[in-house]
Amino acid sequence: MLEPKFMYGSHYSSPGYVLFYLVRIAPEYMLCLQNGRFDNADRMFNSIAETWKNCLDGATDFKELIPEFYGDDVSFLVNTLKLDLGKRQGGQMVDDVELPPWARSPEDFLQKSKDALESSYVSEHLHEWIDLIFGYKQKGREAVRAHNVFHPLTYEGGVDLNSIEDPDEKVAMLIQILEFGQTPKQLFVTPHPQRITPKFKSLSQTSCYNASVADSPGEESFEDLTEESKTLAWSNIAKLQLQEQCKIHKEAVTGIAVSCNGSSVFTTSQDSTLKMFSKESKMLQRSISFSNMALSSCLLLPGDATVISSSWDNNVYFYSIAFGRRQDTLMGHDDAVSKICWHDNRLYSASWDSTVKVWSGVPAEMTGTKRHQFDMLAELEHDVSVDTISLNAASTLLVSGTKEGAVNIWDLTTATALHQIQCHSGPVCDAAFSPDSRHVLSTGEDGHVNVIDVQTGMLISSMTSDEPQRCFIWDGNTVLSGSQSGELLVWDLLGGKISERIQGHKGAVTCIWMNEQCSSIITGGEDRQIMFWKLQY
């Protein structure tokens, strides 16, 4: 095609298309547009099925629906004015719009249309429509790829009217633009975030599913059952009951790690000690001190043989449970190490020296007395101190939160920053990916609870509490956070509100741990206590 190239010679929304649908309630406008006559009877808005088929199959018909399809007024579907709209080729008169077989009445048709518009399917795909109409697929190469190119006159700035000197030609051009319809102003040049939607079945479906499992063994995998139990747990997260509490430290608790069988609990504290506590005997079994500086976090390597602790003395310590001694020390930073993560023989360490470092050579089984060679694979540089980090489920992405309120999302496969979002006015307390890696949640000392879209780096939700949320866990829809006052708060992200407050510590909740089944929770606080919680439902 010669320039200017386009795929459609008109537009999806024009006066003619709107009046096509509204002829039964606004006939005078249609007559004005059609020089005093109604359109050919076979081309009128006669049937939902016909209109659907024409738009789906016809290359020249691409009308979008109008808001009346999702309203309460059915008059545009019914010929209440008894207009003579002509006779069709088959001999029948044009009267009421013929509805689909699934609609009992015009009112039922509109109600079902509204239900469809508000369905989870539409919510999950709404961003794709935004990309076409208002977003990055509206113009340019992406529009061509998406088969979304309309007549040049329909685009803002498509014609320079000031360059047309002939007044008659200018008026003709303005009328043509008016009748063609207009593409909205382009608002976004990057893909729009997907809307946050509930990803799980309803509880009624869950209970029905659980009842039928025994009848059909082998149809659902163990993973499906685990997902069902997690869903059930998170939907009942407000029913958290305190089982017991223990004061085992002299300062605030900073980290919690638990053995696979749940019997041994390891905690770190600002009192510089790593403690090993038996959940069964309720006894403190070990107390280890690596230096006189505070410990900031801890984790257990798979196999439960080694505990790793990060310290304000710039080091990371490896403690062998079997041998009962410090096995190795990683001296990798120039300032306090604030948080550590581990996955697949790689250690990730965040520090107040403004870096996050990725180390190889950290095997799950660190046996014997042999010291290990730690190789730095990558260094993720920041402008200021890094206070927290977290990995996504696949360990392909890392999120970091800084002292000055920035949340950074990193691609670990290339060690490059994908997004930097300045979304807090003070230090970031905690940040973590949703299970599906689509979103990041962050909390800050400013009291904000923010949700960020990972693909676009866009802040898509922000809620405020009257105090900082120091730590949290979440499933993508619901958040359980530990507050500065010691309460545990349950947040409904979709509703944008706090749905439950649970009394907990006598000072700030500083760390929180949840088991894989989401049924058991342990919290640590500034009151030097660890609290054991169970879901009761």
From TrEMBL:
| Placement of WD repeats on the sequence | 330-360, 379-420, 421-462, 502-537
Q: Which residues form the BEACH domain?
A: 1-195
InterPro entries, A to Z? BEACH_dom, BEACH_dom_sf, BEACH_Domain, WD40/YVTN_repeat-like_dom_sf, WD40_repeat_dom_sf, WD40_rpt
Q: Which residues form a coiled coil?
A: none
Q: Which SUPFAM superfamilies match?
A: BEACH domain (SSF81837), WD40 repeat-like (SSF50978)
Give the CDD domains listed for this entry: Beach, WD40
Give the source's domain of life in one word: Eukaryota
* Pfam families assigned to the protein according to its UniProt record, in alphabetical order: Beach, WD40
Q: Which UniProt keywords apply?
A: WD repeat
* Protein name per UniProt: Neutral sphingomyelinase activation associated factor
Supply the source organism for this entry. Molossus molossus (Pallas' mastiff bat)
